[in-house]
Amino acid sequence: MDQAIHELLDSDIPLIPLLGNYVIDSGGKRLRPMVLLAGTRMFGYEGDRHTVLAAVIEFIHTATLMHDDVVDAAEQRRTRPTANALWGAQAPVLVGDFLFARSFQAMVADGDIRVLDILATATRELAEGEVLQLQNTHDPEVDEANYLRVVTAKTATLFEAAARLAAVINSRSGEEEEAMAAYGLNLGVAFQLIDDALDYSATAEAWGKQLGNDLEEGKPTLPTIHALAHADHQGRDAIRRALEEEGVALLDPVRTAIESTGAIEYTVQAARERVKAAKDALAGLPETEERRALESLADFVVTRDF
């Protein structure tokens, strides 16, 4: 898969592979392609389409990260400077566009209209989720249902697509396809829930970026949504002011409010419930080493500290 990634990054414009390789080789977990690769092997696949499509999944994910970092003016990701911190805002946006373009070229070359439909739909939903998140920025009135709508679109949809493709590539039944899709969707929601919990509870060394990043960007997430509903007046006031305008300057009182209301535990429990649903979705699928790997991946999502 990594070989496919670097082949797809090839370009006569030197800045494209330079910047693209910098971001892709920066230590990402490769969880989305893992789901596709393990899923195809669970079903006994012996072809080679899955490696290129796994690279496509990682390309789509990486392109959105590059664009997100520009939108958020982020300076650090995975303990390293972001591409926009090194090259400015314009180059990462344009190279991100190149990654999207190469992704769709690879999908067309695959030749399966279902694959193209699944990934095109996921890309559209992902973009809609990012816009909805932007629309919710600095709004302390965002509720849990609205938040979960954002999480499902901007994160879970690509996990769902990766898992669904594993069944489609193998021409499995509709029931098996939906089971894989349910696994991916719930895994993706759990992943983002833990991400949002870690933004207030991780150590800076393990997290690889500034704590309270969501607060600084005015993004309401489940820890702040839960704390707003259960904190005392002082805690609610700190969260509102932080989300509306003051950001990470109020991180300490916001974290106090989050801790006093059990908001981290609430968020982690919500993630555990999603992980259980993900593992339950695999129950009727082939009992192989790869299925056990997918179950272990789900467990990792809620126990990680980075």
UniProtKB/TrEMBL annotation:
Its EC number is 2.5.1.-. Keywords: Magnesium, Metal-binding, Transferase. GO terms for molecular function: transferase activity. The keyword Zinc does not apply. Pfam families: polyprenyl_synt. InterPro entries: Isoprenoid_synthase_dom_sf, Polyprenyl_synt. Its cofactor is Mg(2+). Belongs to the FPP/GGPP synthase family. This is Polyprenyl synthetase family protein.
